[in-house]
Amino acid sequence: MAVSGRRDKAQQSLRSRIAIALVIGVVAGCLIAFYFPHGLILSYPSVRNHRIGISNIQVDSSSCESSEHIKMLKSEFVSLSENNSKLKKQIRDLKHKLQLVEQGKDHAEKQFLVLGEQHKAGPFGTVKALRTNPTVLPDKSVNPRLAQILEEVAVEKELIVALANSNVKDTLEVWFSSIKRVGISNYLVIALDDHIVEFCKSNDVPVYKRDPDKGIDAVGKTGGNHAVSGLKFQILREFLQLGYSVLLSDVDIVYLQNPFNHLYRDSDVESMTDGHNNMTAYGYNDVFDEPEMGWARYAHTMRIWVFNSGFFYIRPTLASIELLDRVADRLARQENSWDQAVFNEELFFPSHPGYDGLHAAKRTMDFYMFMNSKVLFKTVRKDDKLNKLKPVIVHVNYHPNKLERMKAVVQFYVDGKRDALDAFPDGSE
Fold first, then answer.
1. From CA 269, how far away is CA 360, in angstroms rounded?
2. SS3 of 181, please?
3. How many helices and strands in the chain, by DSSP H and E?
4. Whole-angstrom Cα distance, residue 184 to residue 206?
5. Which of 155, 248, 306, 381 is the most buried (most CB within 10 A)?
6. Which residue ranges traverse the bilayer (predicted)?
């Protein structure tokens, strides 16, 4: 019994010493971990330098952050670095695109900036280039009074517009009478003097007179056909800025159908032609012969007869507004220039050294449907098949005795008088 008791006391004493040793070890480990976070045998050159050179900086106890927190910080750093790289790439791309626009080196890149994403080319025979430019954002502040009138007159943001002064009163009456007969409601006369304002109102014709402008008023009240025609390029600008497509019309035109039912609307400018057959209206290969060049005597050239600036459909696009600005500027600077010639030069001349051409889409109207008076009097009236077709309009642009021929056109196509055109010569007398 005595031996057993001594053995129990010895075991208890051993357990107590082990427990004390464990407690001392744990406490010592905590103290070492707190006061020597980097270990007992590591050197601290940075800390020594810190103590020698920068005495006002203290080591924070937060350096004992857990490994999980450190991993989280590293992850955030990597994520921020990736986002920063993406932003830098976007900045580089934007700078590159801006340089392309400013330098004008790559028109395709300019279109991408304006129109959106680039696309891959499809299979052979399926690729179609962009033909229709986007319209401008309407700006009613340009002319609130005109904006209100157009909201009442236009149909689906389209209308016929004509300029007129008292010199063309009689032809104007034939013009708007033919429009009414067809049933067209979306048309507007821009009156260049007060007499035309009263004349239109008395005939229930939509009319608009611009605010006073010395330069425009001086030409508008007394100018002839060509002078008045040149004004339209200044005046039409406001219509386009307001977001409306305009079918610009001279007043020496007879309407036989609604032209809005016969437009394609796929180009900036869609115009009738002064051409009189397929070649002259739509273009042809004209071979120039220079015999003294020997083997190389034949030079191929491209020819097309001009668009008629007295009847064209123009959409409210930047290219269209640029066209109007270019023509108006040249007419203002070049005193003896003809508006139709300038209109075509700006539309068709390509870019070349010293000159940036206009990037506008254009379409030629069907010359039998949108007929000039040369086609009518030289060809159509003499052809038994063609003279049975009813054109959309007839423009008496080739002949000076406009009023008489306009009335004869009405008699021929509307009244059915088949000999109404016979008395007139092919050309002018």
1. 8
2. helix
3. 14, 12
4. 12
5. 248
6. 18-36
| R_g of the chain, CA atoms, integer Å | 42
Q: Which two tokens stand for residue 183?
A: 């049933």
Question: Shortest CA distance to 362 belongs to which of 133, 104, 173?
Answer: 133
Q: Which residues have CB under 8 Å from 377's CB, separation 6+?
A: 398, 399, 405, 421, 424, 425, 426, 427
3-state secondary structure of 283: coil
> Which of helix, strand or coil describes residue 55?
coil
Tens of pLDDT, residue by residue over 280-337, are: 999 999 999 999 999 999 999 999 999 999 999 999 999 999 999 999 999 999 988 9
Q: Is the dihedral of CA 153, 154, 155, 159 positive or negative?
A: positive
* Alpha-carbon span 72 to 70, nearest angstrom: 5
Whether the CB-CB separation of 250 and 397 falls below 8 Å is answered with: yes
d(CA 171, CA 251): 6
Global pTM value: 0.72
Q: Which residues contact 369 (CB under 8 A, 6 or more apart)?
A: 262, 391, 392
In this structure, what is the dihedral angle of CA atoms 382, 388, 394, 398, given to the nearest 10 degrees? -10
Judge contact between 128 and 119, C-beta under 8 A. no
Q: Which amino acid is at 423?
A: A
* Burial class for 224, CB neighbours closer than 10 Å (0-12, 13-18, 19+): exposed
Sorted by sequence, the CB contacts under 8 Å of residue 353 that are 6+ apart come out as none
Exposure b/e, 137-167, CB count within 10 A at least 16 = b: ebeeeebeebbebbeebbeebbbbbbbbbeb
Q: What is the DSSP letter of 416?
A: -
CA distance linking residue 148 with residue 140, whole number of Å: 9
User: Is-contact 218 376, C-beta < 8 A?
Assistant: no
Residue-wise pLDDT tens digits, 53-68: 444 444 444 455 567 7
Helix, strand, or coil here: 372? strand
Residue corresponding to tokens 């038994």: 384
